[in-house]
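Lab notebook, bench 4. The sequencing result for the construct came back, and we need a structural model before the next group meeting so we can plan mutations. Quick request posted to the team channel:

Model the 3D structure of this chain.
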Amino acid sequence: MPVPVITVSQMREWEKTTWAAGITESEVISRVGEIVARRVRQLTLAGGRILILAGKGHNGDDARRSAQHLADLNVQLCNVTDPERELLTITQELEQQPALIVDGLFGIGINRPLDAKWQVLIQRINNSQSQVLSVDVPSGLNADNGEPEGAAIRASVTLTLGAPKQGLLFMLAWPYVGRLEVAPDIGLAQCPFTGEMNWSLPQDFRNYPTARPASAHKGDFGRLGIMAGSLGYHGAGVLTSRGAQRAQPGLISLHTPDAVYNAIAPQLQAVMLHPWQPDLKLPGDYSAVLIGPGLAQPDLPEAMKLMTRQVWQDSPVPVVVDASALDWLPSGPLPETSVRIITPHPGEAARLLRTTVPQVQANRPNALREISRRLGNCWVVLKGSQTLIGRSTGALVVNSSGNPHLAQGGSGDVLAGYLAGLLAQPALQTDPLKTIAYGVWQHGAAADRLDLSARNWVVEDLAAQIGAVQAD
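Done. Here's the predicted structure in token form:
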């Protein structure tokens, strides 16, 4: 199950519940030490120098315990209690350019500004340009409001323990948090809290979708209709179709303007291609419809926009809308049983709300809920760092996968196609939130897998990889 995003006080209460159940702090620290050490090995090449900075609290205990599991590596452990006294030693260690710094200086208890001596030390660490793994929270960052307390470590990866702390998800915290990862199983008792926001885990999607029966045929897996691509943007129609193919619906048809038909046709084989016609009736025999990728040509027919509005309001099947077509959607209520999904990036979300990107990013949950409310309680995938999934009411899911290399043209087209390809399948329409969350997770997980082999991967590689990652 997804883990809730919690406050510092809730984390403290969870710990108290654990100690009352007879589980000791030593047992939990031992477990955390193993988890941190495992992540250190993953982040460090053979022979790389590792500098562990351990403070005097439990966060430092976690870092110190990890060192016991790294005895075979090139590790230097520095216990830091007096930043002024230890500054010279740490500076000398930093001059040797460690491959990884493990930050265990401060934990979630920080709620007041650090004194000048600590600020100098933290700035020295940040200036080293070494990769940093922060244990639980970047030292100096307030885990409730996401603000640095005078100074904070700028982590490459933050491995937060048990559950994400709410401050780590605020935009203000992102430069310090880096990639946020969650270690949910650290030996604590079962989490006593539920919350509005929940962090997805790979194991949430284990054995999902379920295996197809041996007797299955293409008619069992639906038919997807796509309206995408226009002059100057024909590649979006191709990438969207390829993303949809990786979800493996039974049949896919792409409707695209005449001007780009001949550019798209040689690039697609299994996808059926049709010139868009004003008398096209959607959804017809389609079990899901996707509209929008690459429909950015300024002089597209008004009939295409009218069709989009009609499909959005009246279609009995799931409808996914992305990119330029988001601006064509009507506000107001939708049929209660309808399944509608939009996939805006922050800029598109700002246009929908008639506001600015910084305002959207400052409170992404509120932005998502307001967009959904205006558009009939549709599902919203608010893309970007920590992609958010949900609607005007109910649970919100924060996606855990992905990396900055997704920030390239065409990435969203692949995602829209993949989501629509999943939702075209009748068996995956019964729980839209899980299906959408799975599709978003696969999109990010595919990018993470590509990053392991080469950082210069392109969106065509993403279209080939999406759907292939197995949830652990």
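The CA atoms of residues 147 and 320 lie 36 Å apart.
Will bring this to the meeting.
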